[in-house]
Amino acid sequence: MDSSYLYPGELIPPVTVVIISTIFAVSFGLVFKDMLEYQVGRWQINRATQRTVEYKNPQLRLAFLGMSAFTFMAMGSSLHVLGFFTTLAYGVGAVVVVPTALFIWFQLGSMFELMVSGGSAAIDIDEYFAATKPNSTK
To answer: 68: which residues sit within 8 A by CB, 6+ positions away?
Structure first.
């Protein structure tokens, strides 16, 4: 391997870390999406016996945590490739990814509560904006 792609003290080129962490982040994201779709479908079938969408089970948490961790790694290593110092790059990555991931997780819970109380029409954004547009005739 050509050592011109390595920074001093590194074993793996930073671009390789960007590519691998991005692949894993997308993979965990797809797994998370599929598991959420399964849980929502299961809730829709069993509405009488199941009060809420069960999104806080260990498998979903692991998928979300994996997606968030690899997104953090992808962002930090991308900034590192752009010339940031390693600690600054991963620090900025943490400042961006961690609050965003927490916000998404808590919003997911409130969206599921809204969906349980009002059905899937309660979170249909397209229908909401279509209803607020005035009809224009020519």
So the answer is: 97, 98, 101
